[in-house]
UniProtKB/TrEMBL annotation:
Coiled-coil stretches noted in the UniProt entry, renumbered to this chain: none
SUPFAM superfamilies recorded: S-adenosyl-L-methionine-dependent methyltransferases (SSF53335)
Any Pfam family: Methyltransf_11
Keyword annotations: Membrane, Transmembrane, Transmembrane helix
Name of the gene encoding the protein in the UniProt record: LOC103126797
GO molecular function, one term: S-adenosylmethionine-dependent methyltransferase activity
Classification via InterPro entries: Methyltransf_11, SAM-dependent_MTases_sf, Thiol_S-MT
Lineage top rank: taxon: Eukaryota
Residue span, Methyltransferase type domain: 75-171
Stretches that traverse the bilayer: 7-31
The protein's name in its UniProt record: N6-adenosine-methyltransferase TMT1A-like isoform X1
Amino acid sequence: MALLISVFRLLVSILAFPIYLLNFIGLWSGICKRCFPCFMKYFTAIYNEKMLSKKQELFSNLQAFAAPSGKLSLLELGCGTGANFQFYPPGSKVTCLDPNPNFEKYLITSIAKNRHLQFERFVVAAGEDMHQVADGSMDVVVCTLVLCSVQNQQQILQEVRRVLRPGEAFYFMEHIAAEPSTWTHFWQQVLDPVWNLVFDGCKLTRESWKSLEQANFSKLKL
């Protein structure tokens, strides 16, 4: 099986040679950072439609973590185009964080469409170092389709715990490595190197549940 994966990886790499060449001469990263937000604008619209019921279920009890005033202070990591805004309770005070500044213009459009929210600020930073966000300042932290592309999952999860108030919640929705010995797992192994390059660091083979289990949250629902 390992040999077969290597052969298919080689074939995919040949097809993706122009991208590898651009990456080798140092041009691909800039192109990807500019084009990826545009792709995500269309992808997240399709994804939200397909995952509507799942997201509604995931975010159904957000308001339970609001402060006594009824206001919910929410931090979204890897906010992208603001695809989750429609699921947040009215009056939520939303802080957005993303390492790619090119998402900002799409984020502004989403903010304009979601007047039920109180937008606080857009922080350009990686989740591994959120020093701009104070300790214990958030009721809820959200990340969807983010842990697949970060440099250090454990560091991000420790930062999440730092910025959350005691007893508050972290909401996540991630794609992960498929079960071994399945065709899905086979193609994840084949496509992962090129996928990682094309989709701005996204990895198909992450076993993110392991990092979540090791993060020492008081309660974990997977």
